[in-house]
């Protein structure tokens, strides 16, 4: 019996992802619609019996909806939600996306009311968490906190509880409630030990707030050696110990950036802070320019290295790729983190170059 692998749902979905990587959004949308249209021809009971098909439909629909939203094609995104409504089990995810789209379009209270109704009717962790996320995005942090607390009551596993505690951590960050933020992070990391690899999110925030003693304790938990030393140097510098900072960063740059287990981003930032952009440019020459293989952070550092030596066009090529990748990932602004702009200004002597590239970065 012939097997049409090219027509399998998995193959079609992969082609959609490949199209996105090529920045061919229209083809990706067409391919995802193809999956959605095929699978919604099946009866809902059939999908529920065949969990792999329902999972494929859910993944394809969610990707399609997010891409359409990013493109500003809201009517079509709503159409995609309506197409799968009734075909997916669970807490009415398509309706929740429609409500979120309404909020994005400006019908804020209507969308929030719809989300709250779904959350109350389904008693779903995901629905309450979605409501919290919308409130947080609107900077209505007290209401976000209440929604997340309700979501926490509905959590059915350690993984779900960790997810909500992490959302609360970020809400408390925005509110400036340091003790509450650290408490919820600690709870999340107990519930989900793998979060230990993301402790950078805690100590970078504490450093930005000037909480250096607290930051030092979290930096000490960093399992990545190069990254831990990079931030030990940053703390030393902020405490006024410039020579100590440089000594620590020199230990980072003595590592082989291409050796297994060495963090290239940490190595590159240490080299830039030591005034060695050419070392970073040399690393870039041996690295793929494909952002499927190079992280957004690393690509940004390559661009900063080019800017530091006055190669504005080369820097712009890196930053353009980074912005495209951020857009594909659904980043809310599509701009590079402000901390990288600060690094650019620090290592680039020509302030006209800094000014020419500043539009790529978020404001503080």
What does this structure look like?
The protein is mainly alpha-helical and 364 residues long. Among the domains are: 76 residues, Serine Threonine Protein Phosphatase 5, Tetratricopeptide repeat, CATH 1.25.40; 90 residues, no CATH class. It is built from 21 helices and no strands. The radius of gyration is 23 Å and the shape is globular. The N terminus is likely disordered.
The overall pLDDT, averaged over residues, is 93
Strand content: under 5%
Distance between the termini: 60 Å
Q: Can you write the helix and strand succession as a string? A: HHHHHHHHHHHHHHHHHHHHH
Count the strands? 0
How would you sum up the global shape? globular
Please summarize what this structure is:
By secondary structure, the protein is an all-alpha fold.
List key phrases describing it:
mainly alpha; Serine Threonine Protein Phosphatase 5, Tetratricopeptide repeat; 72% helix; globular; disordered N terminus
Task: Describe how the helices and strands are arranged.
Elements: H1 9-21, H2 25-39, H3 44-49, H4 51-70, H5 74-84, H6 93-105, H7 108-122, H8 125-137, H9 141-154, H10 158-175, H11 178-191, H12 200-208, H13 212-219, H14 225-238, H15 242-253, H16 264-273, H17 277-285, H18 296-308, H19 312-328, H20 338-347, H21 351-357
Helix pairs in contact: 1-2, 2-4, 4-5, 5-6, 6-7, 7-8, 8-9, 8-10, 9-10, 10-11, 12-13, 13-14, 14-15, 15-16, 16-18, 17-18, 18-19, 18-20
């Amino acid at each position: 019996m012939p097997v049409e692998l090219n027509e399998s749902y998995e193959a079609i979905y992969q082609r959609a992802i490949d199209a996105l990587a090529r920045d061919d959004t229209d083809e990706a949308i067409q391919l995802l619609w193809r999956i959605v249209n095929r699978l919604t021809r099946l009866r809902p009971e059939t999908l529920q019996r065949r969990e792999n098909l329902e999972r494929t439909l859910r993944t394809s629909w969610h990707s399609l909806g997010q891409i359409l939203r990013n493109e500003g094609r809201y009517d079509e995104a709503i159409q995609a939600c309506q197409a799968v409504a009734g075909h997916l089990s669970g807490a009415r995810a398509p309706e929740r996306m429609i409500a979120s789209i309404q909020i994005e379009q400006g019908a804020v209270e209507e969308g929030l009311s719809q989300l709250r109704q779904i959350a109350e009717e389904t008693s779903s962790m995901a629905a309450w968490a979605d409501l919290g996320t919308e409130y947080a995005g609107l900077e209505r942090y007290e209401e976000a906190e209440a929604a997340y607390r309700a979501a926490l009551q509905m959590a059915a596993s350690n993984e779900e509880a960790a997810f909500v505690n992490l959302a609360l951590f970020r809400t408390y960050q925005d509110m400036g409630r340091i003790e509450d933020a650290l408490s919820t992070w600690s709870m999340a990391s107990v519930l989900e030990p793998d979060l230990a690899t993301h402790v950078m999110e805690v100590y970078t925030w504490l450093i930005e707030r000037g909480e250096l003693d607290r930051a030092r304790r979290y930096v000490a938990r960093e399992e990545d050696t190069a990254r831990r030393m990079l931030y030990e140097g940053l703390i030393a510098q902020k405490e006024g110990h410039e020579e100590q900072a440089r000594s620590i960063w020199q230990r980072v740059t003595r590592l082989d950036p291409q050796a297994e287990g060495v963090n290239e981003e940490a190595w590159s930032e240490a080299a830039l802070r030591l005034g060695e952009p050419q070392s970073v440019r040399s690393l870039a020459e041996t690295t793929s320019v494909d952002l499927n293989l190079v992280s957004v952070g690393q690509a940004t550092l390559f661009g900063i290295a080019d800017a530091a030596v006055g190669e504005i066009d080369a820097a712009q090529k890196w930053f353009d790729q980074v912005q495209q990748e951020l857009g594909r990932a659904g980043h809310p602004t599509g701009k590079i983190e402000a901390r990288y702009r600060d690094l650019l200004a620090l290592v680039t002597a020509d302030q006209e170059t800094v000014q020419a590239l500043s539009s790529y970065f978020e404001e503080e």
